[in-house]
Design brief:
Number of domains: 4
Strand content: 15-25%
Strand order of the largest sheet: 5-6-4-16-17-18-15-19
CATH architecture of the largest domain: 2-Layer Sandwich
Structural class: alpha+beta
Radius of gyration: 23 Å
CATH topology of the largest domain: D-Amino Acid Oxidase, Chain A, domain 2
Largest sheet: 8 strands, mixed
Distance between the termini: 26 Å
Shape: globular
Helix content: 25-40%
Bound molecules: flavin-adenine dinucleotide, iron/sulfur cluster
CATH class of the largest domain: Alpha Beta
């Protein structure tokens, strides 16, 4: 079994992770959590609604009235440090009995055991460009060309991508993998299914001083906080406490946040400075940083799971449960279900046809908790396409009724979810921001946040550092030489006519910047492969495609703690 990974190490993943770990525990009935660095068994969960201490976030009138009522009754309901703690954790968010992990550390732990078994070889630094087809069957994969210039043209030591043939091609290339997208293009998607909901997850790993986790502090190891309401009402956040005074803290900026200013890095810096978090985090030191897209379409984005010679697993197969905010255990479990199916077929001497894979893998998956969770959560987030309040109501309805009641929505393609401000006050802020951007040369989206009243970030060189410095903390962006650029702009004309340039605002690594003649410019050496540009371009190129062409590429963020 050969496993190809584009990053230079299998420890380079970015995730939360808090998980119920049903599937992981089933694979390791005698799991000793202490063996996995950064892992802990969850002891304590809280849900906090964060009020805005600056008055800068884009809150609707209804939300402002709600906030005012909470502040008015703060003594009665216990609002402290601009935060209101929900008296209970909704059952659908509960991860009781589960684990806090670092995906980088977990991958290393499991990867070394797999390779030691002798059955599997893992090849990092090996991007796969496309599936190989024989008519409608998948017969293997093509690896990326090496020794090419940024446009893919052969240069000095050209090595064409090898074709690797296999009886079964397992596609687990995550939410924005090139192989999965190529299969969707060839075979289409099941009726009514499309990937239209995304979020960018960005996180810091912070080391705290000993006082912050001493007895009596709420930040005891194995603590989980879920937050909502700040820095924007659409942005959910999390804080997980690992052993040894390490916390993972992060936010999710969703595609349905219609604002073109989606500067996740700055939002994350405001998030950690919220008074309810900052009183614990302010003496901490940033150890590492990371970002990655999540496919939030869930079952709506489920592709054809099997075909002749291939099967799909993990987030790209629509397994992520957006009600529980859980993707790791689901991805793991779909992989183990396929493994059981493969063993069954090999024992029976049956080939890996669509029919056989469907009867073994799909049947297992449909009968499992992964499918139940996917169905319960499939419409849970619909309300957010109306407003945040609708979204919260929709989520609560779906969560409390096990998905039997939920709101409906007509979800547009991602580029149509981004809206330019047309309100009078919004346009005034844009004018003010444009002046700020011209005066001190900062990006327009950053200036827009300042114009809206967000305080400037005061760097302390320890926890609050510039975006460029964060790219070098606890890891490094790797971009092996000799590979082509994996981000390309399909039409220069569309970029010229594009006012908002959301691809720049959202770029997690500042790899897309404003280049010559006002056009976006891509630098592979800074790209963390978060995939956010793919769904953050506001222009339609063709049908559902945006103006960003996101291909298979090598490298990305190397940070084993994420
Ligand atoms: C900040 C953040 C916080 C999160 N928090 C949680 C949480 O608390 N709990 C939870 O359960 N989930 C959480 N998630 C979601 C979770 O990370 C995903 O659901 C999960 O990682 C999906 O696993 P996967 O293996 O399907 O895909 P991925 O983890 O995306 O793995 C896909 C792999 O394929 C590789 N790849 C892609 N394309 C190619 C190619 N062309 N060639 C070779 N290799 C390729 C990628 O490099 C990657 O290693 C979070 C995500 C983020 C970003
Ligand atoms: S890639 Fe998309 S968002 Fe970026 S400048 Fe071009 S058209 Fe605009
Ligand atoms: S260019 Fe790279 S870092 Fe920037 S959004 Fe795209 S994938 Fe992420």
């Amino acid at each position: 079994m050969l496993c190809y990974e584009r990053a230079d190490d299998i420890a380079s993943g970015v995730s939360g992770v808090v998980t119920q770990a049903r599937g992981i525990r089933a694979s390791f009935p005698d799991l000793n959590v202490a063996e996995i660095p950064f892992a802990a068994e969850i002891q304590n969960e809280r849900v906090l609604y964060l009020l805005d201490p600056h008055g800068a976030s884009r809150r609707s009138i209804a939300l402002r009235i709600g906030d005012w009522a909470l502040r008015f009754a703060s003594g009665l309901v216990g609002v402290r440090d601009h935060a209101f703690e929900l008296p209970w954790t909704p059952s659908f968010l509960h991860k009781h009995g589960g684990l806090i992990l670092s995906i980088g550390q977990f991958n290393q732990w499991i990867g070394s055991q797999l390779m030691a078994s002798g059955f599997a070889q893992i090849w990092p630094g090996t991007p796969v460009t496309a599936p190989l087809f024989a008519d409608r069957a998948v017969t293997g994969v093509r690896l990326a060309d090496q020794g090419v210039d940024k446009h893919g043209a052969p240069s000095g030591s050209f090595l064409p991508g090898m074709d690797v043939h296999a009886q079964l091609t397992v596609v687990g290339d995550g939410p924005f993998g090139a192989v999965g997208r190529a299969l969707d293009q060839k075979f289409g998607t099941p009726e009514g299914h499309a990937k239209r909901e995304w979020a960018l997850g960005m996180k810091f790993v912070i080391e705290l001083p000993s006082e912050a986790t001493s007895p009596g502090s709420p930040l005891q190891p194995a603590t989980v906080w879920h937050t909502f309401g700040y820095p924007e009402p659409e942005i959910f956040g999390f804080l997980y406490v690992h052993p040894d005074r390490i916390v993972s803290v992060g936010i999710f900026v969703p595609s349905w946040m219609s604002d073109p200013s989606r500067t996740a890095y700055r939002y994350l810096q405001h998030y950690i400075q919220h008074p309810a978090l900052w009183k614990f985090l302010k003496y901490g030191t940033l150890r590492s940083w990371g970002a990655k897209s999540l496919d939030e379409s869930g079952r709506h984005g489920e592709p054809f799971l099997t075909g002749d010679g291939y099967a799909r697993i993990g987030e790209g197969s629509g397994s992520t449960n957006m009600l529980a905010g859980s993707g790791v255990d689901e991805a793991w479990t779909t992989g183990t279900q396929l493994a059981q199916a493969v063993i069954e077929l090999l024992r029976a001497g049956k080939p890996f046809t669509q029919e056989n894979l469907s009867a073994t893998y799909e049947t297992r998956r449909r009968a499992s908790w992964v499918e139940r969770g996917a169905r319960e959560s499939e419409d849970a987030r619909n309300g957010f396409h109306g407003s945040v309040i609708h979204g919260m109501i929709g989520m609560a309805l779906a969560g409390l009724t096990g998905g039997r009641i939920s709101l409906s929505a007509n979800i547009p393609p991602t580029h149509k979810q981004i809206r330019t401000t047309h309100s009078r006050s919004g346009n005034l802020k844009r004018k003010e921001a444009a002046e700020l951007a011209i005066n001190d040369g900062r990006p327009l989206h950053d200036a827009l946040m300042s114009a809206r009243g967000w305080p400037e970030i005061v760097f302390d060189g320890r926890l609050l550092v510039s975006h460029q410095d964060a790219l070098l903390m606890g890891g490094k962006v790797q971009a092996m030489p000799g590979f082509a650029d994996h981000v390309a702009f399909r039409s220069i004309g569309l970029c010229i006519s594009c006012e908002d340039k959301t691809c720049i605002a959202m770029c997690s690594g500042q790899a897309i910047t404003l280049g010559a003649e006002g056009l976006p410019a891509f630098e592979r050496e800074k790209c963390v492969h978060c995939g956010a540009c793919l769904w953050n371009c506001s222009k339609e190129f063709d049908d559902d495609l945006t103006n960003i062409d996101f291909r298979a590429g090598s490298g990305g963020l190397h940070s084993a703690e994420n």
